[in-house]
Structure formats: C-alpha cells, structure tokens
Amino acid sequence: MRSETDTLLRKILSDVLGLKPGQADAFDADTGLFGHLPELDSMAVAGLLTEMEDRLDIVIEDDEIDGELLETYGALLDFAEAKRTA
Question: Quick one: 4-18+28-85 is in which CATH superfamily?
C-alpha cells in the first residue's frame, strides 16, 4: 500500500510533466528520473520542486537540490517523506 506522500508525488509528477495516464503508477524505487524521462528537463525541475513545496506543504532549500535527488523515483520519494516528517 502506498503512503500519502507516494500517491501525491506520483500525481505531482504526472501533472507537472504531462506523463501518460498510469505512467507514474508504474514507477518503482529504481525508476530513473532526470536523464531518463525526456519530460523532466532542467526547465521542468523548477516547476516540479515548486509543486512539491505547494502540494506537500514542505520547503526545499537550494542546498538540498543535487543530482542524486532527482536520479531515481525512490530518492525523490525518500526526500519528500523525510521533509514531511521533519
């Protein structure tokens, strides 16, 4: 069963990136994001992070953003869950 954060993050990715219906539902922890999804380019990253802040009610500091954060779905989910419980 997915956590609330997991469900919300999949919805955010679908909405911001315009993914095909159900595409984000198939993501697992090892699914590559930046560099693997053509929709997630450098311009889309800012929109994605802004939507995460708004919908997950978190604040993402500039120094928290690095290549590893957007490398896989699992890394992004772990980050989002940690921010929501902090």
Answer: ACP-like (1.10.1200.10)
Phi, psi of 51 (to 5 degrees): -65, -40
pLDDT tens, 21-67?
999 999 999 999 999 999 999 899 999 999 999 999 999 999 999 98
- Partner residues linked to 32 by β-bridges: 72
Task: Answer yes or no: are the C-beta atoms of 49 and 71 closer than 8 Å.
Answer: no
**pTM summary value:** 0.95
Cα–Cα distance for residue pair 35/64, rounded to 1 Å: 19
For residue 23, which phi and psi values (nearest 5 degrees)?
A: -60, -45
Q: Where are the domains of the chain?
A: 4-18+28-85
